[in-house]
Amino acid sequence: MLDIVHKSCLRELRPARRGCCINVDLSYSHGGSLPMNRLSINNPAYWRERAKEARRVAEQLADAFAKQTMLDIARSFDNLAVLTETRPASETSD
Questions:
Q1: Fewer CB in a 10 Å sphere around the end CB: N or C, the chain?
Q2: pTM passes above 0.70
Q3: How many angstroms separate the CA atoms of 31 and 35, rounded?
Q4: For the chain, which residues make up each domain, given as ranges?
C-alpha cells in the first residue's frame, strides 16, 4: 500500500483534506491488466502499465499539486519504457 499525502497535510499535522490524500493499492489484486510481479523491469510493458496506473490515480486527486506530481511520475514511467526499448539486449539481462 502506498500513501499519497500532500505536504501541507503532513506539515500541519492534521487529517488529510477530502480528495487530497489517498491510499493507492499497487498490488494489482483488483484485476489490473498485467501481473506486475511477473514482468521484468526490463520489459517496456511493465513501465507502461505503471504509467497507466499513475494516470488513473491522478484522475482521482482533487489537489492540483498532487495531481501534477502523479502525472510527472507517469511521464517518468513512460520515459523508462522508452529506455528499456532502446537499450541493447546485453544490458537487459536479469
A1: C
A2: no
A3: 9
A4: 2-88
